[in-house]
Amino acid sequence: MDASCTSKVRVIVRVRPFLSHEIPAKNGNPSSCISVLDRDSDSRDEVTVHLQDPETSRKECYQLDAFFGQDDNNLRSIFEREVSPLIPEMFRGRNATVFAYGATGSGKTYTMQGTNLLPGLMPLAMSTILSICQRTGSRAEISYYEVYIERCYDLLEDGAKEIVIQDDKDGQVHLKGLSRVPVNSISEFQEVFSRGIQRRKTADTGLNDVSSRSHGVLVVAVSTPGSGDSGAVVSGKLNLIDLAGSEDNRRSCNEGIGLIESSKINQSLFALSNVIRALNNKEPRVPYRDSKLTRILQDSLGGASHALMVACLNPGEYQESVRTVSLAARSRHISNFVQSTHKLDTPKVKVDMEEKLRAWLESRGKTKTPQKLRSPPTGTLVNAKERGSSVPFRSLFSDEGLTDSCLESTNFASEENREKIGREVLLRKVLSPINANVNQIRHEELASCYKCPVHFEPKTPSTATCANDKFVTISTPLDKFNAMSSSIKSSLMQEYVDILNTASREELLEIKGIGVKIADYIVELRETSPLKSLNDLEKIGLSSKQVYNMFSKAARSIFDNQDDGAQLQ
Ligand code: ADP
Ligand code: MG
């Protein structure tokens, strides 16, 4: 293998077995959606991990450093092959980091902590470190802390003491006041560590009863009396990290604080991925400062340090595994993406969201000749497709006025026209809640816009139909208004997601609310994992509120442009 391609941070995959309660749901015969191609068990070179959705024909392949399948009793072999080589380096003054990354329930805590019978990477590492300490006369101390919503808490002290992160004059990061407990035997370690585990924040997310919502960091620091004349003490440390679960908000049904937690978790995981990627690509700037966790780990990821990322997978979760492996592979190397049936090329034809939106509006609100719009004042019939092809993408999102004559109409004479403008007013209402113009529309004009039956589901705007698929009687214009608002919003969001997946970087930059940094992140993210919904933007470190604001800005700009010509009376 070409040395220049070697990852500085190794990224390996561990697939947990199916659990006994998961087997009946798979008709007693579960098959893993994850496998490895061309496996060479003795090699420390690349492996190709293959993911296949058993329910569809979807397949993806990613290259990573090693694969540990569910059939292996693999904690010990992961330790011996991947973690053990890092330990002697600590005694030479080098730092190292091992972290378990993956969705909630994928086996991260099991991998790091293990059970009484099968110790995980943390106790296995501790035991090896202690035996080297005995031989060399070195001292071992442990610290255990968690990073929870970008704050750091000491887990070896009662009372959730918050730890302040400080930079010294040399730019080194210090956790001021963090406890360090000397450990001389594995039983001492078990005692101190298990008390820390109890303090770690857990909450019920609906995916895993005691899901870990914080990043748990165990630090084992060793100091070895120096040899030779200087007699300087040599210090090194190993960080063993059980990362918080990378969450899909829609699946975990998070609300309130859960959502904030979840977006912070996803932000810091994305920041970690960016740091690893920058290190592996020898980029001049490593974005350590983008999250608390990466800032704290700065001295144990870059420089002469070594790191290992264990991507943990649940064999029955295809989508979730794709998310985990794609982020892991993205972190590992810039050119490791092998093949994806969903990979999107930069579009050859410009995306015309305006055309899509308009066609959709027509199909929702009109009962006759939905493909055509009368274009006042000339009265010429304009084919929507022809018109769309001549409207550049920019006209939707730039500050230039729209050239489409349909939008410039101030004429309320025809019913068709009134319907059209009413629908656009509705859109404006949906996207710009505080908009004085809306109040200027006469009630009956608005009411006359909607003659088609509407599925009414005010609380869950992301779906267009009710769960039981029944029509609900909508009696007042406000009911109609609310119902239309919900489905218009979800449709518009989907169009927006499509654009984010397909627009070129330059086109993204023309969208209101997207700057250079976000455009670059979106392009990087979709290379490995196309966006499925706006929530996926949380993976690049945006909060759900920021995502929504970004969408609102883009959508509102549609109407800002229209205001140039359309005066609503
Ligand atoms: P996470 O920390 O990623 O949320 P856990 O480590 O809690 O996930 O694992 C989820 C469940 O799977 C737990 O019940 C755990 O005991 C079980 N599990 C994980 N890995 C294994 C394994 N190798 N063998 C048996 N059970 C496992
Ligand atoms: Mg856990």
UniProtKB/TrEMBL annotation:
Region span, Disordered: 365-385
UniProt domain Kinesin motor: residue ranges: 8-334
Domain of life: Eukaryota
InterPro entries: Kinesin-like_fam (IPR027640), Kinesin_motor_CS (IPR019821), Kinesin_motor_dom (IPR001752), Kinesin_motor_dom_sf (IPR036961), P-loop_NTPase (IPR027417), RuvA_2-like (IPR010994)
One record GO biological process: mitotic spindle organization
Amino acid composition bias (Polar residues), ranges on this chain: 372-381
PROSITE patterns: KINESIN_MOTOR_1 (PS00411), KINESIN_MOTOR_2 (PS50067)
Swiss-Prot/TrEMBL keywords: ATP-binding, Microtubule, Motor protein, Nucleotide-binding
Cellular component aspect of the GO annotation: microtubule; microtubule associated complex
GO molecular function: ATP binding; microtubule binding; microtubule motor activity
Residues the entry annotates as binding ATP: 102-109
Family statement drawn from the similarity comment of this UniProt entry: Belongs to the TRAFAC class myosin-kinesin ATPase superfamily. Kinesin family. KIN-10 subfamily.
Name of this protein: Kinesin-like protein
Organism phylogeny: Eukaryota, Viridiplantae, Streptophyta, Embryophyta, Tracheophyta
